[in-house]
Amino acid sequence: MNKISKRIIKYMVLINLVVILVGFILTSSILPKIYINNEYSDLEIASEYVLEAAKNNTVIDLTDIYAVLVNDGSVKNMCRTISRGQGSSGNNSGSGMGHMGQMGMMNHSKNIDFTSVKNKDIFKDDDGNTYIGIKKSSDYGDIVVYKDYEEIRSLIKSVNLIIVAIFIFSLVLSIIIAFYLGEKFTKPIIALQKRADNISKGIYENTLEVTTNDEIEELNNSINKMSEELKIKDTMQREFISNVSHDLKTPLSVIRANSEVIKDGLVEGEEVVDYATNIIEEVDILSSLVGEILVLSKLRENKSTINLADTNLVDFINESYYKLKNIVSINNNLVIKNELDDRNYYVKIDNNYLYRVLTNFITNAIKHSKSTRDEITFGIKSIENGVEIYVRDYGIGIDEESLKNIWDRYYKGDKSGGMGLGLAISKEIIMSHGFLYGVRSKLGEGSEFYFIVPNKLIKKI
């Protein structure tokens, strides 16, 4: 038996114990009081009939009730007691039975001290029999109406036995139900536990199907989704390490080869300068790669030195345009497109970091603008939820699979080598500003990278 099943059984037993205990206490204390009050009410009603009989100097028939009139120490029987099911004394047989009931009453009434009976009282006769009764004063003496108390005791005893039986039955039933529910609930949970263990070991296959239509099914769906994402991340991380190794190995090989040539004295004069220049260029490449990794790490850990300042958005775009024109080759035409109504849009930005994002967008556009239309559009426009800044090329486009992961720091869609950290860094910079980002692309029709400045971050001056 698993731990959850044991816990469910324990809780079910505890609940049953509490319920039975409360029920037993209520039955033992409240039920007798209720029943006794009802008996007193019946005796009150019967006393009215006895009083009427005393006025008429007669006796009456009462079922399971006795009545006497106590006056100056003398006790007079006022009723013929009829047991339940005995019938009335309307015929000779009934009269005989009524006479026998009256004689029985006369016998036990001699053993009771009626003078000691209180207004509402439970008392005993000399033989130890217990009775419940009431005493009422009248012009004819004290009327005492009473009945046997053993019926109440028997009833309470029977109720207690029933409560005990119910407790035993409910306890057994609850254990069976708890065991069933425990097995039913824990079976998918144990399966999910094994699934989570497999994921922790890097085993992402064997997707688990759970159809419980509750939170357990939602948890399973979340784990399956997590597994898929971790699998993608793991794959991209491996590719990242492979790309890093490749990007570091290539310049290191060049540096070593050139250094060995110089060391061995295989070159002289101007050739030494050329080889040294190659070494410096490869060192610069290595420094750039390491710098990219450090920048991404700082941005991811929110330890970047982004300094936000109020900036006119249109002025920033125009300044960036003139700078970016210098990195676009003569084979491409950078077109600026301003669709804003006015120039009064002010936003808190870090010019250097945001310019780096635009540079990355333009660099990607140049790389993929291999079409008859060698044009790149750099634009800004007002949309419903803010201001959008975009860079559009009309090149080869991006496939759907790459679009899903293109912003990830480990992903490189084109398999041409290199780490592909530019968009990952751009994403972190955009998010640090509180902006939105995205890409629209279709194979053969080009791509459009953009970020959106939400309305709440824009001030119009």
TrEMBL record:
The keyword Metal-binding does not apply. The keyword Nucleotide-binding applies. It is found in: Cell membrane. Residues 183-235 form the HAMP domain. This is histidine kinase. Its main location: membrane. Keywords: ATP-binding, Cell membrane, Coiled coil, Kinase, Membrane, Nucleotide-binding, Phosphoprotein, Transferase, Transmembrane, Transmembrane helix, Two-component regulatory system. It catalyses: ATP + protein L-histidine = ADP + protein N-phospho-L-histidine. One of its GO terms (molecular function) is ATP binding. The chain crosses the membrane at residues 12-31, 161-181. PROSITE patterns: HAMP (PS50885), HIS_KIN (PS50109). GO terms for cellular component: plasma membrane. It is a multi-pass membrane protein. It is an enzyme of class 2 (transferase). Its EC number is 2.7.13.3. Residues 243-457 form the Histidine kinase domain. It comes from Clostridium sartagoforme. Residues 209-236 form a coiled coil. Pfam families: HAMP, HATPase_c, HisKA.
